[in-house]
C-alpha cells in the first residue's frame, strides 16, 4: 500500500467550513483565519490529495471529488472534536469514570464522607463503588477492574503499591448480654472457650494469636453486616478491627484486645508505577480530606507520622 499523504485535521476542518458557510470569506471568519491563509490551507489539501476540491470560478461549489470527500471529512472532524472535548473534560475532571473499592470498615463510614465532598465538585464524573475483603480488592486493582482500592497492605506483591492511611486495633465484638460486654480491655486468652464466629480478619491473624484465643470457630461469615447481626443475635463472638463497628448497633461493643495488641493497617492500594486518572486522583484527595475531618479515638486508631 502506498504511503498516505500527510493531511492535517485543520485542513479538513477548513474544507468543511468552506462548504457549510457557502464561501471562503464566511468560512475564514468562522475558523478565525485570514482568507489568504484559508485559501492556502485548501490548496495544500488539494495538493496532498491530488485532486481539486472546488470548481473553477466558484468559491464554494465542490467538485464531484470534493462532494465525495465532504461527507467523510465532516464525520472525521466531528469525531476529532468529540474526542478532544472528552479528553479535556477528563483532564479537567468534568467527565469520565472512577472505580474504587474499600474494605467494609472504610466503605461504611469514611468513604461516604469522601463521596459527599467529591460529587458536588465533579458532577460530571460517573462513580462506581464496591466493597469487599482485602484479598478481593487486591485482585481488582491488579486486574485493572478498579482505579484504586482502600484496604490492608498487600504482602510480597511487587505489582501493588501501598500508601498507609491509618491503623486500628483488633477488638472482640460482643453483645449486651455477654460477660465481656463491660470489660475495658480483653486479652486473647480470655476468648478461650467461647464460640468465635470466623471471618476473613480472624483467619488472617497470626497462628499463635488464633491458638491463644482458642475459641470454637465452626461458623464462618464473610459479610460484615451479617456477621454483626449474628453476634447481636447471640450466635457467638467475633474479632474485627475497631473501625468495622456500625452505627445504630447499640447492643454491640468492640472491646480492644491485648497481649498482644494487634493493629490492622489500611491504605491506598494501587498498581505499581501506574498514574491515576485526574478524576481518580481527585477522589483520592477527597478521601484524605474526609479522613482528616473524622474524629477518631487515638487509643484505638493511629494515623501514620508524616515523615
UniProtKB/TrEMBL annotation:
<keyword id="KW-0238">DNA-binding</keyword>
<dbReference type="GO" id="GO:0003677">
    <property type="term" value="F:DNA binding"/>
</dbReference>
<dbReference type="InterPro" id="IPR000847">
    <property type="entry name" value="LysR_HTH_N"/>
</dbReference>
<keyword id="KW-0805">Transcription regulation</keyword>
<protein>
    <recommendedName>
        <fullName>HTH lysR-type domain-containing protein</fullName>
    </recommendedName>
</protein>
<dbReference type="InterPro" id="IPR036388">
    <property type="entry name" value="WH-like_DNA-bd_sf"/>
</dbReference>
<dbReference type="Pfam" id="PF00126">
    <property type="entry name" value="HTH_1"/>
</dbReference>
<dbReference type="InterPro" id="IPR050950">
    <property type="entry name" value="HTH-type_LysR_regulators"/>
</dbReference>
<comment type="similarity">
    <text>Belongs to the LysR transcriptional regulatory family.</text>
</comment>
<feature type="domain" description="HTH lysR-type">
    <location>
        <begin position="7"/>
        <end position="63"/>
    </location>
</feature>
<dbReference type="InterPro" id="IPR036390">
    <property type="entry name" value="WH_DNA-bd_sf"/>
</dbReference>
<dbReference type="InterPro" id="IPR005119">
    <property type="entry name" value="LysR_subst-bd"/>
</dbReference>
<dbReference type="GO" id="GO:0005829">
    <property type="term" value="C:cytosol"/>
</dbReference>
<dbReference type="Pfam" id="PF03466">
    <property type="entry name" value="LysR_substrate"/>
</dbReference>
<keyword id="KW-0804">Transcription</keyword>
<dbReference type="GO" id="GO:0003700">
    <property type="term" value="F:DNA-binding transcription factor activity"/>
</dbReference>
Amino acid at each position: 500500500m502506498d504511503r498516505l499523504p500527510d493531511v492535517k485535521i485543520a485542513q479538513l476542518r477548513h474544507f468543511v467550513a468552506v462548504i457549510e458557510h457557502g464561501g471562503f470569506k464566511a468560512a475564514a471568519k468562522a475558523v478565525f483565519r485570514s482568507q489568504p491563509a484559508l485559501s492556502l490551507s485548501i490548496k495544500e489539501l488539494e495538493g496532498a490529495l491530488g485532486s481539486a476540491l472546488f470548481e473553477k470560478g466558484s468559491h464554494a461549489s465542490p467538485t464531484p471529488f470534493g462532494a465525495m470527500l465532504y461527507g467523510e471529512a465532516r464525520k472525521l472532524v466531528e469525531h476529532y472534536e468529540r474526542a478532544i472535548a472528552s479528553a479535556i473534560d477528563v483532564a479537567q475532571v468534568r467527565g469520565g469514570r472512577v472505580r474504587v473499592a474499600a474494605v467494609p470498615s472504610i466503605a461504611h463510614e469514611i468513604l461516604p464522607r469522601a463521596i459527599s465532598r467529591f460529587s458536588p465538585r465533579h458532577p460530571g464524573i460517573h462513580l462506581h463503588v464496591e466493597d469487599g475483603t482485602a484479598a478481593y480488592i487486591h485482585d481488582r486493582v491488579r486486574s485493572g477492574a478498579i482505579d484504586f482500592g482502600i484496604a490492608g497492605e498487600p504482602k510480597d506483591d511487587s505489582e501493588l503499591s501501598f500508601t498507609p492511611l491509618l491503623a486500628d486495633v483488633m477488638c472482640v465484638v460482643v453483645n449486651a448480654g455477654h460477660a465481656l460486654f463491660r470489660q475495658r480491655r480483653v486479652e486473647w486468652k480470655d476468648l478461650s472457650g467461647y464460640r468465635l464466629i470466623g471471618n476473613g480478619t480472624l483467619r488472617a491473624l497470626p497462628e499463635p494469636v488464633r491458638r491463644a484465643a482458642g475459641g470454637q470457630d465452626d461458623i464462618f461469615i464473610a459479610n460484615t453486616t451479617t456477621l454483626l447481626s449474628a453476634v447481636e443475635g447471640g450466635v457467638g463472638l467475633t474479632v474485627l478491627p475497631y473501625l468495622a463497628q456500625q452505627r445504630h448497633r447499640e447492643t454491640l461493643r468492640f472491646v480492644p484486645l491485648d497481649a498482644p495488641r494487634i493493629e490492622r493497617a489500611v491504605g491506598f492500594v494501587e498498581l505499581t508505577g501506574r498514574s491515576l486518572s485526574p478524576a481518580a486522583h481527585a477522589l483520592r484527595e477527597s478521601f484524605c480530606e474526609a479522613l482528616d475531618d473524622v474524629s477518631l479515638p487515638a487509643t484505638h486508631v493511629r494515623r501514620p507520622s508524616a515523615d
